[in-house]
Amino acid sequence: MREYSRALFRAFAALACAAGLGLSGCSQQPWNDPYPAAESGKAILYSAFVERPKHLDPAQSYSENEATFNAQIYEPPVQYHYFKRPFELIPLTATEVPRPVYLDAQGGLLPDDAPDDLVAESVYTIRIRDDRSYQPHPALALDASGAYLYHQLPAAQRDAVKSIYDLPQTGSRPLRAEDYVYQIKRLAHPRLHSPIYGLMAEYIVGLGDYAKTLRAAEQKLDGKGFLDLRQYALPGAEVIDELSYRVRVKGKYPQFAYWLAMPFFAPIPWEADAFYSQPGFAERNISLDWYPIGTGPYYLSANDPNRRMVLSRNPNFPGEAYPSEGDAGDAARGLLMDAGKTMPFIDTVVFSRERESIPYWNKFLQGWYDSSGISSDNFDQAVKSAAGGESEISEDMAAKGIRLETSLSASINYIGFNMLDPVVGGDSERARKLRQALSIAIDFEENIAIFSNGRGIPAMGPIAPGIWGYRDGEAGLNPVVYDWVDGKARRKSIEDARRLLAEAGYPNGRDAATGQPLVLNFDATTRGADDKAEMDWMRKQFARLNIQLVVRGTDYNRFQEKIRKGNAQIFEWGWNADYPDPENFLFLLYGPQSRVKHGGENSVNYANAEFDRRFEAMKNMPNGPERQALIDEMVGILRVDAPWIWGLHPKRFSLVHGWLGNIKPNQMARNGLKYQRLDVPRREAARAEWNAPVVWPLALVGLLAAVVLAPAWLAWRRKEAARGVAGRGPAGRDTGAVA
Amino acid sequence: MIAYIVRRLLYAIPILIGVNLITFALFFVVNTPDDMARMALGMKRVTPEAIERWKAERGYDKPLVWNAAEGGSRKVTETIFVEKSAAMFAFDFGQADDGRDIASEIRTRAGPSLAIAVPVFVVGLVTMISVALLMVFFRATYVDTSGVVLCVALMSISALFYIIGGQYLVAKVWRLVPISGYAGGLDALRFLLLPVVIGVVSGIGAGARWYRTLFLEEINREYVRTARAKGLSELRVLFRHVLRNGLIPILTASVAAIPLLFMGSLLTESFFGIPGLGSYTIDAINHQDFAVVRSMVFLGSVLYIVGLVLTDISYTWADPRVRLE
């Protein structure tokens, strides 16, 4: 029997091995390797995405998950320094970061410090490098005569094209200044609905009229075919020569330089529009929104947004030197060891779609992904609290060579008071003290600990850390909500909040005039079970002041509508910075940006003439002591008026395997892939060690099946052999058989 | 039979119009065209003009079901409902609200969905019937009793547990197959093995128990007694006679499901990273993409009707006494 069991075990083990080898392509590849055997041992970075990118056309793309791809493909004229903080603009394809020249209404040159009201135009002259060429692309393929091969395909050939990869020929050409101008014109393209068109039409000279011209031209084309933007001049964006172009901006708008770092201002060759405008292409997803064309270090070599998207090294990219300087400590962390070397270091980046966090996390732990975020479910497994409240990697993770990278987001999550509301809004002392009392009572330190696993810092004002104008430590303390005690901020006591509430006319949470309890409404989008816990917590915070909080849960559409119409009372909101300038936070409270009155981004409809006056003076100032003083005054006004409960600045945690180097999280620059480096042999060794298959369960399953089936088989044999006499079937039981 | 099929297909037209109308009403009760435009254009810096242009380009600037500004039949035809629904009856699904072609998306995603659904369906059906017949063969013995207990235990566990538990044990702890992912061709086997096994195992409990009940009803019929009296072996009795006569309820449950197989499974596809159709409708609802929602609901309705007709036809094959008139 023992011999028999051993033989059986060996047979199952052999079968399992054979099956495993068969499934893994008869190689030494681990059985659970989710990638093709051909990719083994190559310098391929593996990452994941949850949501498929909606737009890859740089005129339309505005989301972070889209920037993950576009920022590697497209090259705007400037970029952010990968290491330096506060964020600093440096040239990318431009020869230098463009500086505006100011002109008066007559076109006369003004000095750099000219008063805002004298400046009629800011002129940015941008000269680009001469070493850039586009990725290989069929839109640029030429025939022997120099004509474009695929711009006017015959109907039969056109209908056979299912993706651009069906077209065998590709071409390239050098980057030209006209491509940047062409893309600026595309912001007004009637078919594209660029999200920044409205904003840019206020600044770029003639862009609004240009859009009208294009709409008229589009009507003639009946919305189909190639709308050749080269036929229509835009006064605000002009080509000077092959490598230089000029952008004219109305008045002073120093933040325009930051916009130049976004893919909205990346170059697009007119050939791309001509190629993609062919009949039937858009219906088959053959468009710039699906197949980008850029000059960057990578191009999109596979686009199956339901499964995987692949970036491959652009063979026409000339390379870029790795930065040789960074912040203090960057060199000690080994981040400058590649200084001066030519980037990119990685050949291919494979993004797989992972909708669920559990498989994503487990595949990261097995080494199939090179980096990962941390969900709440896995937080305790990955991170532990060190002395001083800092977070550090857990021992288990550290033993696998995984390290923790943290960075503060250039964003803020806040609770807004609708300033048009008769109870919590308005400029009265009563309402102001009510808002201040609530600002103290809602304990965001506790909120961060419970709902964010400590991933965030309480906000002291609207400006996020890392943005110029943000103040840290005692200088940045919000004295309305905090005291500075023993070298750190301490939230004022609930007694202080109660006192303010009583001064506001609501002693012990009751209206002093009517004796009625104070009932406030919190508008929130209902998203899931986690929200219920947070809303319960929020009710408790208000209850500390004896205020009854009614949570009005609604779907996102109705929530947005309430904010637009000013029907919300208290609500949660957030903002991610577009660019690292304090103006991009403070404008959220600028009166003319009021959501209800002007459809702007000031969701709480705050209006304070003193704040607005300072904002207008500050927004166009160069960074310096004078600007900082104004910002301090503005933040001081806001703290007293308390239109927001300042909430928190989220902290991003990510885990990185030891074989992936040169990582410094950068919340502004999305083009970080070119800096990253892989230690492939180390990864291969770790994967092999961590993924050896365990085969005994297969044998056990077989054995169990045999144990279960063998008696049944034997019983069946007995039953078949038995004579058909009632009462004498197997085990002496009545089988129901008839004699 | 042809007349019957034609009649059934003609009945389908008012059903499909009704389904369309209900989908339309439900969708636009929750989402207005303005909401759809905002969702499509993004949350930052969206101007009212951009919203109006987006709606006009996609025909969402018209009244929903009644255009009072028009005359004659155009009061009905110049509406969002008619414009968006009419083409679907020619299976022209058009483009999603983000501009991507719906038919091409369905074609691309249907393959991976079928790659899981067909083996789960076929292997599952065969396994369930075999287990049920095994329990019937050993009825009233320990095999039957423990089989029923096991079935009840299996059907008491949620599908999500099977998926997470299966991934944890087989893919993470034992490292026998990839946790998730997908590939084309034969390489797909590595990725499909675990979801198919989980799909089959999670369905055995309820299926086998139900089929056992069906077969137990048959086993005491007179024709079974006659078969045994003729000296047929018990296996032959079960597989040739009992199974054949128990087919009608099996077909009722199974054939109608066949056309719907390609609609995929949301949970399985999400957890195993299978790029199928399972999540297409849910994603579209989340993104307020009415074009996709209406297309998928329409397609689901058509397939369900086809499934019911196929079920009726299959009855004539299983039982020659059935006539479709």
How many strands in all of chain A?
Answer: 27
Structural class of chain B: mainly alpha
Q: Over the alpha carbons, how many angstroms does the gyration radius of chain B reach?
A: 25 Å
CATH superfamily of the largest domain in chain A: Periplasmic binding protein-like II
The CATH architecture of the largest domain in chain A can be given as: 3-Layer(aba) Sandwich
Largest interface: A-B, 72 and 70 residues
Specify the overall morphology of chain B: flat
CATH topology of the largest domain in chain A: D-Maltodextrin-Binding Protein, domain 2
Q: Helices and strands in order, then pairings?
A:
The complex is a heterodimer of chains A (739) and B (325).
Chain A: H1 2-23, E1 44-49, H2 64-73, E2 78-80, E3 89-91, E4 100-103, E5 109-110, E6 121-127, H3 155-160, H4 177-186, H5 197-203, H6 207-221, E7 237-241, E8 244-250, H7 256-259, H8 270-276, E9 298-304, E10 308-313, E11 320-321, E12 342-343, E13 348-353, H9 357-365, E14 371-373, H10 379-382, E15 383-385, E16 391-393, H11 395-399, E17 403-408, E18 411-417, H12 429-441, H13 444-451, E19 456-458, E20 482-485, E21 488-491, H14 494-503, E22 519-525, H15 529-543, E23 548-554, H16 556-565, E24 570-576, H17 583-586, H18 595-598, H19 609-618, H20 625-641, E25 644-656, E26 660-661, E27 677-678, H21 680-690, H22 696-721
Chain B: H1 2-30, H2 33-41, H3 48-58, H4 74-77, H5 80-86, H6 102-137, H7 142-156, H8 159-173, H9 188-219, H10 222-229, H11 234-245, H12 247-254, H13 266-272, H14 280-286, H15 290-318
Helix pairs in contact in B: 1-15, 2-3, 6-7, 6-9, 7-9, 8-9, 10-11, 12-15, 14-15
Provide a descriptive summary of the structure in words:
- The complex is a heterodimer of chains A (739) and B (325).
- With 739 residues, chain A is of the alpha+beta class.
- Chain A has four domains: 2-31 and 693-726; 51-317, D-Maltodextrin-Binding Protein, domain 2, CATH 3.40.190; 342-407 and 661-690, no CATH class; 411-652, Dipeptide-binding Protein, domain 3 (Roll), CATH 3.10.105.10.
- Chain A has 22 helices and 27 strands.
- In chain A, strands 14, 17, 18, 19, 22, 23, 24 and 25 form an eight-stranded mixed sheet that branches. In chain A, strands 5-4-6-8-7 form a five-stranded antiparallel sheet, with helices on one face.
- Chain A is globular.
- Chain B is mainly α.
- Helix content of chain B is 70%, strand content 0%.
- Chain B has helices at residues 2-30, 33-41, 48-58, 74-77, 80-86, 102-137, 142-156, 159-173, 188-219, 222-229, 234-245, 247-254, 266-272, 280-286, 290-318.
- The longest helix of chain B has 36 residues, at 102-137.
- At the A-B interface, helix 5, helix 9 and helix 22 of A face helix 2, helix 3, helix 6, helix 8 and helix 9 of B.
